[in-house]
Design goal:
Layout lengths: L1 E5 L6 H14 L7 E5 L3 H15 L7 E4 L3 H5 L4 E4 L5 H14 L9 H25 L4 E4 L4 H12 L3 E3 L3 H12 L8 E7 L2 E9 L2 E2 L1 H6 L1 H4 L3 H6 L1 H7 L2 E2 L4 H4 L1 H10 L4 H17 L6 H14 L3 H6 L15 H14 L3 E8 L12 E9 L2 E4 L7 H23 L2 H9 L7 H11 L2
Parallel strand pairs: 1-2, 1-4, 2-3, 4-5, 5-6
Antiparallel strand pairs: 7-8, 7-12, 8-9, 8-10, 11-12, 12-13
Helix pairs in contact: 1-2, 1-17, 4-5, 4-14, 4-20, 5-6, 5-18, 6-18, 14-15, 18-19, 19-20
């Protein structure tokens, strides 16, 4: 099986490769035997390749790693294409976050004005990738992790249909933590999760037909063992009657998170730009055998500081050791690949076209929900009706996503202004206009 990773110089690529090497070590049937990397930054790609070499040492059946010369070379003949690109690099993210903050609104990579700006820049590139895959590897499955993941997956699906599936590590982390909080094996529970990417809710958690979520919500001590319990607070979680995705903190606690973000010495994008810049510079001159150690140290620091603004706004607390492992999106991606290639019927939370799952949304609107995965792809399962407060946010954000896609692909400036002005974290046409002008739209 051949896997192509677009954004092959990305910092988290070694996590995917580590799982592939473990598959080889254990002799997993149908495992990946060729990994093709493509990136527009050759310096980063050389560093990541060195890490992969260290990880594969002494594993004779580890996947062969090949560096592609261009996009077409990368996707041609691939069975799976993993898209994890960052258009504009970390410098683009810094601008996406700083410009809105200067106007008094949240600027985050995928949420609020920052997410809209990132989507405007990224969507045309993602659609071009979809077109090249359709032309050169029409039987390939595209796994999209490029943010904003739901928006980008929907844009790509206009070309690839159901052969593009979006992934995110937030929902799987939420389910894992909730299961552990009630003393259940995360691999044994069933769950109901619905929403959009970075805007979803865990509404049911069952084991052997027994509902566990109400008991968890009533147990303040158990809730405080959860990142979400500390982030949102037990009172608010009981009021919601569900466990929200961590990114909903930006919506439910907008004032507190904005204040914490503005008070911070640097934005998340600025932190990553500096940290990754130092890492890649140091790693480029490191002796053989030392690069992986440097990467692991930088990775741990990155995980420790994840969602620092939300944690600061909710009282300040450290992440649990078990949440610093970094085994999230890579595990979802590989589980999805195994399920498709092995026709296993595994259930995963994925970003797919709605069909009739949420009747208020169009059939081709991409949602994030529980799917059953087989050789035919990912089919969303039916779910309980979406509560009005949840549906209201979903409808508003879906309108933002679609306006951003329209603006990005067709140069529709009115659509861009409408998407940004009507975003619940912006809600001002005057602010939206100034942000777009400063960003060059």
């Amino acid at each position: 099986m051949r896997l192509a990773i677009l954004g092959g110089g990305g910092f988290r690529v070694p996590l995917v490769h580590r799982t592939l090497v473990d598959d080889a070590r254990r002799g997993v049937p149908g495992r990946c035997d060729e990994l093709v990397l493509y990136d527009t930054d050759p310096g980063r790609l050389r560093v990541i390749s060195a890490i992969l070499d260290e990880q594969a040492a002494a594993v004779p059946d580890a996947p062969v790693v090949r560096i592609a010369s261009d996009l077409d070379d990368a996707v041609r003949g691939a069975d799976f294409v993993f898209s994890a690109i960052r258009v504009g690099g970390t410098a683009g993210r810094v601008r996406d976050e700083r410009i809105p903050l200067g106007e008094g609104v949240l600027g985050q990579e995928t949420v609020g004005a920052g997410g809209v700006l990132y989507g405007l820049r990224t969507t045309p590139v993602a659609v071009h990738i979809a077109e090249r895959v359709a032309a050169l590897a029409p039987e390939a499955w595209v796994i999209n992790f490029t943010n904003p993941a739901g928006m980008v997956t929907e844009a790509m699906s206009a070309v690839l249909g159901d052969r593009v599936i979006g992934i995110c590590d937030s929902p799987v982390g939420l389910v894992r933590r909730a299961a552990k909080a009630v003393g259940a094996d995360p691999d044994e529970v069933e769950y109901d999760y619905i929403g959009l990417n970075h805007l979803g809710w865990l509404r049911s958690l069952t084991l052997d037909g027994r509902e566990l979520l109400p008991g968890l919500l009533a147990d303040e001590q158990a809730l405080n063992t959860l990142e979400e319990g500390r982030l949102f607070g037990p009172w608010w979680l009981r009021t919601l009657g569900a466990l929200p995705n961590e990114y909903l903190h930006y919506y439910y606690f907008r004032r507190e998170t904005l204040a914490a973000t503005r008070a911070a010495a640097e934005t998340r994008g600025e932190f990553l730009a500096q940290q990754q810049g130092r890492f890649f510079e140091e790693a480029a001159g490191a002796p053989p055998g030392r690069v992986r150690e440097l990467w692991e140290r930088a990775r741990l620091h990155r995980e420790e500081t994840y969602l620092a603004d939300g944690r600061a706004a909710s009282g300040g607390w450290e992440r649990d050791t078990c949440d610093l492992e970094g085994g999230g999106y890579d595990q979802v991606a590989l589980a999805l690949m195994r399920a498709v290639s092995g026709d296993t019927g595994v259930r995963l939370i994925l970003n797919v076209r709605n069909g009739g799952t949420v009747p208020a949304l169009d059939a081709d609107a991409v949602i994030e929900t529980v799917c059953e995965v087989s050789a035919k792809g990912a089919a969303p399962l039916s779910c309980a009706p979406v509560r009005p407060d949840q549906l209201g946010l979903m409808l508003q954000l879906k309108a933002v996503e679609r306006g951003t896609i329209d603006a990005a692909l067709h140069g529709n400036r009115s659509a861009a202004a409408r998407a940004l002005a009507l975003h619940p974290l912006v809600d001002s046409p005057a602010v939206a206009r100034r942000i777009l002008e400063q960003a060059g739209y």
